[in-house]
Amino acid sequence: MSDGAPFNEIRGSGGETHQQCPEKSSQDRDETLTTNQGIAISDNQNSLKSGARGPTLLEDFVLREKIFHFDHERIPERIVHARGSGAHGYFEVTDNLSDVTKADLFQRAGEKTPVFVRFSTVAGGAGSVDTPRDVRGFAVKFYTKEGNWDLVGNNIPVFFIQDAMKFPDLVHAVKMESDRAYPQAGSAHDTFWDWASLMPETTHMLMWAMSDRTIPRSLRTMQGFGIHTFRFVDADGKSTFVKFHWRPKLGIQSTVWEEALKLQAADNDFHRRDLFESIAAGNFPEWELGVQLFDEAFAKSLDYDVLDPTKIIPEEVLPLRKVGRLVLDRNPDNFFAETEQVAYCPANIVPGIDFSNDPLLQGRLFSYLDTQKSRLGTANFHQLPINAPKCPVMNFQRDGQMQMTVPKGRANYEPNSLAAHGEMGGPRECPVTGFRTFEGQAQKQEQGDKLRVRAELFADHFSQARLFWTSQTTSEQAHIASSFVFELSKVGLDQVPPRMVANLRNVDEALAKRVADGLGIDLPKKSQAAREPVDMAPSPALSIQKNMIDTVEGRKIGILIADGTHAKVLKSLVDAIKKAGATPFIVAPKVGKVALSGGEPIKADGQLAGSPSPIFDAVAVLLSEEGCKMLLKEGAAIQWVMDAFGHLKAIGFVETSKPLLDKAGIEPDDGVVSLTNRFIEAAAKRYWDREPNVRMLV
Ligand code: HDE
């Protein structure tokens, strides 16, 4: 049924109920429901029976096919990064990179390459929530003219481990515990901290994980990183090391922990919804791609190893070169076909890009293709529309389950002499344009005996954890210390928190003391560092708060109204919000019809109980004296204002709403403004200074 007309219920002669398409006795073939074999279906309501009350017949191929297909709709979820949200878009080069790479996609400023991006949480299952404390995946598939390049990164520039050998242990430890199957999507439990505290190389990443980086406000306001050192290779075969950085145009924004917790209750799909709605509304999320470029000599000059994925190169030491922008401008047509079936793989690279010897990266090169065969069920998953390159694919690989292509001729081997004798000979390798692994001198030097070891500088586990700590604002440090306390307080194994705090003493004594105090345990003896940490100059680029952009663009502002709210005031606020590039969302105790004073009744966007203030970036309270009086007795309204205040958001109000603010215990500060005033300007910020008045952080 393409016209969406309702079905009529018709009584059959035997009293049986069935439904038919109204009016139409015949219709276009391309509108007709069919089986998978293309057979037109006459009745999609009733199975075939022997008599109206008789048994269903095995003969009913329409029913059997429908149920068979339904039975097999689910596929295995990803072992990690199972919950994700994706979007289509493009990458546009703004600065041609031909001086360092021959990769075709970077050659011409202004040129656009189509992309599909998938963001994900790591630990939770596909049906888990969007806002746990967790690292976020940031995977980009570039459909270049030279084949697919996948930059499969995260929103944190370092990783927990240095060697792929430890990945299954990390994932087993962090995912739900294997006997009890909880927690579903978070690291605050015994096995994760037991393992992490025994693995000092995790310390740098733990600092990031305990910071506000892992509770992003939206997927649109996260940074992304390729993490590993990769190589660019130019047309002459010269190699330059490269690290990739995505920077959100709207700046980084995170939530506060309590807000993230409340968001889980308010909207399990908070990030997915935000991404989808923003794109649908034409507010296209955008990032800038920056690269850090360096050579062997620079790498050797550092106190740490650029092959170690637990290390960054501070931007103040090696600034970013801006090379392009990523814009997401189209939602998937179908979540399963695209977001679920997309298969990223760090081994998908194009000529001009190459790997480094980072032992974590090297292990990843094996894992993704391998897991995708088991997840997608066939070695031919590269033929799915979302995975298929947008350039020709020609080779002699044949057959396999779900083969979608129909190769012609009998040339399925190489070399062959068929072409010379009038038959199709098939494709040939090309030494000029084909991918050649970088063979440089330096690469050759990295050889030696076969050893299960790590390079010497990998042993420094704490210098950069300290660098991260010293680069944060006072408020961010309090968040980190409090997160350690929260997570470790969930650990029931008594040996674990002291072991973790013993490691933290190598990062910063004050941090360790705060965590020990917060947990109410004695300060343990400092753990023995494998290599003594060194002090590094703080890197302001590592702080979220130092780099926030004060703007309401792309944000959502909640407006609480009730019967009696003044129509004119509401309209002027809505207009001002829209003008500033934000989205107004009207909340009322009854959603259907709100009687405004001096205007027509309106329908609200959300009902008060279902639209708590954590889902907004700032709020305004527009109640008449009567409306306010009524809501003074409504816990959800008091909580609405109280949460906005507690989550450090701006609150705009009209004078008649003041009793509600008073009842919610709102104390005046820069972020609490009268609506005649500078509300839009105030809404562009979070009020970190307010925090010590609203919660006890350690
Ligand atoms: Fe992954 N990772 N990973 N990972 N990873 C997967 O591949 C793996 C690592 C990342 O949206 C899996 O198709 C190993 C670092 C993202 O579909 C799997 C190691 C980084 C995604 C896998 C790592 C990532 C994955 C699971 C250590 C940041 C989601 C399903 C050697 C640079 C991609 C799949 C998507 C997914 C293995 C470490 C990012 C099992 C073995 C470091 C964003 O193959």
Automatic annotation (TrEMBL):
List, alphabetically, the Pfam families matched. Catalase, Catalase-rel, Catalase_C
Q: Region labeled Disordered — which residues?
A: 1-32
Q: Which Enzyme Commission numbers does its entry carry?
A: 1.11.1.6
What's the superkingdom here? Bacteria
Q: Which residues form the Catalase core domain?
A: 34-422
Query: Which metal ions or organic cofactors does this protein require, according to UniProt?
Result: heme
Give the protein family: Belongs to the catalase family. HPII subfamily.
Q: What is this protein called?
A: Catalase
| Species of origin | Pararhizobium capsulatum DSM 1112
